[in-house]
Amino acid sequence: MNKLKINYILDILLGISFIIVAITGMVLVFKLVPKHTLVQLHDISGIIFIILSIAHIVLHFNWFICVTKNMFTKNKDERKK
């Protein structure tokens, strides 16, 4: 599978796990259902979200490095003017 497809699938899964964490978190905060029914779903989807987020950062690490270098390079160029 190429990197584009992996990123696409990863982003979809990140979005789904975020929505689950957000909805179950809001339901738990406002006590709309008994706590024990959603805590496990909330915890598992939170762990999945963290794992997928780390994978996302690892896959985009070179992009982060390039953007950071460009930001500092542009700032140095602007100071010289």
Question: What topology emerges from the helices and strands here?
Answer:
Elements: H1 3-29, H2 35-59, H3 61-80
Describe the protein in words.
The protein has 81 residues and is mainly α. The chain has one domain (3-80). The chain has 3 helices and no strands. It starts with a helix and ends with a helix.
What descriptors fit this protein?
single chain; 81 residues; mainly alpha; 3 helices; elongated
Provide a compact summary of the structure.
The chain is mostly helical. 89% of the residues lie in helices and 0% in strands. The protein is built from 3 helices and no strands.
CA-to-CA gap between the ends? 46 Å
Mean pLDDT value? 89
Shape: elongated
Encode the helix/strand succession as letters: HHH
Number of discrete domains: 1
Q: What value does the Rg take, in angstroms?
A: 19 Å
By DSSP (H or I, 4+ residues per run), the number of helices equals 3
Strand proportion, as a percent range, falls in: under 5%
Give me the secondary-structure category.
Answer: mainly alpha
Uncertain residue segments: none
Give the fraction of residues assigned to helices: over 70%
Report the count of strand segments.
0
How does the major sheet shape up? none
